[in-house]
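Response to reviewer comment R2.3. The reviewers asked that we include at least one raw input/output pair. We reproduce the pair for Putative integral membrane protein here without editing.
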Amino acid sequence: MPDTLSSARARTALASSALISAQLLLVAVAVAAVLWALARMWSVVWPVVIALFLTTLTWPLARALRRRGWPAALAAVAVTVVFLLVVVGVVALIAVPMASQSGELSDGVVEGIQKVREWAAGPPLNIGDDQVTAALDSAAARVQNSVGSVVTAVATGLAAMVGGLVTAVLALFLMFFFLKDGPRFLPWLARQLPGRLARDIPVVAKRTWVTLGAFMRSQALVGVLDAVFIGLGLWVLDVPLVLPLMVLTFVSAFVPIVGAVFAGFVAVLIALVSNGPTDALIVLGVILVVQQLEGNVFQPMIQSRGLGLHGAVILLAVTLGGSLAGIVGSLLAVPLTAMIAVVWNYLREQLTDPEPESEPTPPADAPPADAPSTGAAIPGT
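Raw output as returned:
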């Protein structure tokens, strides 16, 4: 007799599917509402995120000072001052050598442009000076016709710079307060929450903090690898300003995609104006190889070990974050994915039924538990 479909089971399965779909829809609506609220408060959320990143980098030093008996406020002040001095030192390490060789670099730029014009004037392009002049005149005319757009773009850029400065200052102050009062946050949070939330939320927050610290340490290690390999290539080719370029490469590693492009462009430009087009192409090749190793080998391996995420998950997260929110999305994609994994793992721990305790298996020659006792003594007692 052929099997027939049970209408009762089909209705039960359909009702369960509808209920699960409705619950997932409510969760999606709640997540969308949270994201909408974060977007509306982004001017406040973004400095907090930057401050948390900076705090994970500077907290080990503050913790060491506190363990040596320093007051919390004094340790936070000292670490904040040291951080500012390091930032100023990095800027000076990049800017001072470039300023001292600015004359040579500017002469090299002019010479490089002249070489490009001479190369373009020969075969196979055969671009004459009159054509170059016509192109420059056309570009100047376009600029004049779009003065309003240029002014608007400049004003937008200035507003972005002012906003970035305000964000940096606010993030610095928040970092100080996080260093000073951070250890008291979780106990305070536990006192404000009712019931199980007083236990669950602090545990998730602590695990998230550990995960964020692992992300920042892994990103710093990737930046060191980039700086060492690219700096070694520049040193072999005898390109000037090797140390500033290494520092710039390390710092730019914390800004995905754009940071690497900017640091690579500066290195290739300096190689072009100082050593010529051949060395510039070699430097470009070295940078491309290192960046490919970073994106496909170093970063997935290091971050997957530190964050507990598979390398493919990290690559997909960075790609999705960049497509959804640009540079900021690429920067936040990996730590946000790791935090989601932390929450999911904790939920699995809480929702998983404990395994039943198994009774010990008696030996094969042991008598049954209900066997009558013979009163004989056990050998060896």
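The chain is about 80% helix and 0% strand. Confidence is low (pLDDT under 50) at residues 373-381. Further pairs are available on request from the corresponding author.
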